[in-house]
């Protein structure tokens, strides 16, 4: 077998291992549950007031449901990534990783298995969140091609953030710390266009919000689901995903290959 | 020791490794013939686990040449990994999977194929008395069962060289005997076994050759019998009526090992008349009252005590 086919075979084996963990100790209800609570909170508690500020035709809560769903979907992805940081950190505290390291298997397969499993789990959680959003009045206005493109971009984002989470999971020796490290990923949608338009933010914050990766991703998903000119925003979103994936992958590889005794 | 033409299974020359400023292995040489059991014996902190971790490619050495199964551990770790199996000190099983799933995971990673993987898993479950653990997640399994599964997982791919880092630490006497039998069966099947232990009895029973590691250096190496010959006469066992006398005597004979429960002190000695007289004179001049005295034939405990840091026992007792 050549290196690529070994990588694919071993990653599939590791994926099966992680999916089995997920089946036995399902986290998907937490991963979907927390964004659903946020969705209900933002729509029914804050939505009337926040929606009025959007200046849309329907006004109020109905406008805000449409606005907030893409941000909630990114929160779902960040939550899933947090779960990966925890399960990687748990694996690293066990002897099983020492066993993997002394076996003649593809080095990256252990990491890829975690990423693939989490992306599958996260996309399933996204489906649950979307169903709840539809129930409370989210009405996408575009066709199946745009839906598919939105799904594709969300998958890319999940891959990117999960690779970062895998690295974060190996950064410390404690599971507790690993569970806190991805916190910025959960906060970034708030400091972007996830919950309010960036135009409403004070200057320095607005500059940050306009130029951080979550904003183009959220904007592209929003326009794919609700219509609007996508233009270069879509390209910028995809470029961010590719760049974050690359950084996350190289960082995770470096941490996994470092001398575990030092 | 190695038959001409047969390369050694493991060969290390001048192996060095430190953690930060702490030097753990200070240039050790090892040679393990294929198809033998080699025991690395030493007290806690001697560097046993570090040695195993380097030989099994888990951590790199700082210096020295190391070949395992004929391949260099630094230049060609994957070739080494394909030939070895490691059962470390800490359970390397996946606690969220069942026993059977753990074995099949190993079979898949060894690319055995689905049918052969299942067959091998079933065979190992049977052989290691793991049928009970086959279908339930391991989180609830006993230490002995986890250890057996750990070793079974190591054996899935038929490794030619197996590293066992303190394979019986923390096991009850029965599980320990089961583990010893497994090692003997592996040896009979032609596998080379490199094990570490702090139990002398274990090394004596299992190993063809023993190296004693202390403070990062090999302080003695040979067959169990050769090592025993290093301390001819074994030791003198002194019995005391109370703890204060034992205390005094322990102070005088600093290389001795004391047993506060039995009120005895084992003093390394060649057992000859001259040295016995010297010992008695010493006791006399310190006015130590001895209840009883016996001369013991040598065992590996004596080798261990006389070779590994003379004050180690005392330090341990103070702590």
Number of domains of chain A: 1
Q: What characteristic shape of chain A results from the CA principal axes?
A: elongated
Question: What is the N-to-C succession of helices and strands of chain B?
Answer: EEEHEEHEHHHEHEHEEHEHEEHEHH
Terminus-to-terminus distance of chain B: 41 Å
Instruction: Please tell me how large the radius of gyration of chain A is.
Output: 19 Å
Q: Pick out the low-confidence regions of chain B.
A: 311-319
Structural class by secondary-structure content of chain B: alpha/beta
Number of domains of chain B: 2
Brief sketch in words of this structure:
The complex is a heterodimer of chains A (262) and B (319). With 262 residues, chain A is mainly α. Chain A contains eleven helices and no strands.
Provide an overview of this structure.
The complex is a heterodimer of chains A (262) and B (319). By secondary structure, chain A is mainly α. Chain A has one domain. Chain A is built from eleven helices and no strands. The mean pLDDT of chain A is 93. Chain B is of the alpha/beta class and 319 residues long. Chain B folds into two domains: 213 residues, 3-Layer(aba) Sandwich (Rossmann fold), CATH 3.40.50; 84 residues, no CATH class. Helix content of chain B is 38%, strand content 25%. Chain B is built from twelve helices and 14 strands. In chain B, strands 6-7-8-3-9-10 form a six-stranded mixed beta sheet, with helices on both faces. In chain B, helix 3 crosses helix 4 and helix 3 runs parallel beside helix 5. Chain B is globular and about 75 Å long. The two termini of chain B are 41 Å apart. At the A-B interface, helix 1 and helix 4 of A face helix 2, helix 3 and helix 5 of B.
């Amino acid at each position: 077998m050549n290196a690529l086919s070994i990588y694919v075979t071993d990653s599939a084996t590791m994926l099966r291992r992680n999916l089995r963990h997920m089946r036995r100790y399902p986290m998907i209800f937490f991963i979907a549950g927390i964004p659903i609570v946020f969705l209900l909170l933002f729509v029914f508690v804050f939505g009337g007031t926040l929606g009025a500020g959007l200046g849309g035709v329907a006004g109020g809560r109905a406008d805000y449901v449409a606005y907030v769903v893409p941000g909630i979907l990114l929160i779902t992805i960040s939550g899933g990534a947090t779960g990966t940081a925890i399960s990687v950190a748990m694996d690293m505290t066990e002897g099983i990783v020492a066993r993997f390291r002394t076996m003649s298997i593809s080095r990256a397969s252990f990491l890829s298995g975690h990423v693939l499993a989490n992306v599958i789990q996260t996309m399933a959680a996204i489906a649950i969140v979307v169903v709840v959003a539809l129930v409370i009045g989210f009405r996408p206005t575009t066709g199946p091609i745009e839906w598919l493109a939105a799904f594709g971009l969300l998958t890319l984002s999940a891959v990117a953030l999960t690779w970062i989470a895998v690295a974060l999971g190996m950064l410390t020796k404690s599971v507790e710390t690993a569970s806190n490290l991805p916190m910025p990923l959960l906060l970034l949608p708030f400091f972007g266009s996830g919950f309010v338009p960036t135009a409403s933010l004070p200057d320095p914050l607005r500059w940050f919000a306009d130029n951080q990766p979550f904003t183009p991703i959220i904007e592209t998903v929003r326009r794919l689901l609700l219509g609007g000119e996508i233009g270069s925003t879509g390209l910028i979103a995809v470029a961010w995903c590719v760049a974050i994936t690359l950084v996350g992958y190289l960082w995770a590889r470096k941490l996994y290959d470092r001398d575990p005794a030092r | 020791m190695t038959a001409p033409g047969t390369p050694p299974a493991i060969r290390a020359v001048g192996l060095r490794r430190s953690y930060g400023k702490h030097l753990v292995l200070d240039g050790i040489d090892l040679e393990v013939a294929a198809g033998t059991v080699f025991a690395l014996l030493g007290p806690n902190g001697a560097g046993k686990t570090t040695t195993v971790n380097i030989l099994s490619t888990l951590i790199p050495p700082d210096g020295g040449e190391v070949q395992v199964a004929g391949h260099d551990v630094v230049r060609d770790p994957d070739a080494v990994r394909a030939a070895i199996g490691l059962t470390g000190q800490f359970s390397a099983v996946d606690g969220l999977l069942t026993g059977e799933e753990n074995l099949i995971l190993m079979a898949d990673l060894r690319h055995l194929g689905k049918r052969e993987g299942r067959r091998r898993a079933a065979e190992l479950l049977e052989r290691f008395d793991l049928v009970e653990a086959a279908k339930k997640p391991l989180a609830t399994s006993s230490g002995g069962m986890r250890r057996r599964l750990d070793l079974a997982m190591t054996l899935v791919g038929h490794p030619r060289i197996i590293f066992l880092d303190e394979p019986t630490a923390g096991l009850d006497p029965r599980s320990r005997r089961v583990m010893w039998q497994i090692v003997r069966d592996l040896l009979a099947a032609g596998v080379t076994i490199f094990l570490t232990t702090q139990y002398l009895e274990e090394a004596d029973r299992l190993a063809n050759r023993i190296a004693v590691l202390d403070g990062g250096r090999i302080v003695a190496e040979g067959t169990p019998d050769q090592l025993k010959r290093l301390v001819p006469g074994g030791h003198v066992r002194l019995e005391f009526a109370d703890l204060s006398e034992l205390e005094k005597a322990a102070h005088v004979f600093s290389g001795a090992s004391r047993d506060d429960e039995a009120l005895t002190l084992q003093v390394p000695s060649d057992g000859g008349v001259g040295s016995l007289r010297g010992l008695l004179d010493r006791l006399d001049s310190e006015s130590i009252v001895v209840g009883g005295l016996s001369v013991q034939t040598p065992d590996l405990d004596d080798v261990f005590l006389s070779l590994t840091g003379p004050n180690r026992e005392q330090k341990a007792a103070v702590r």
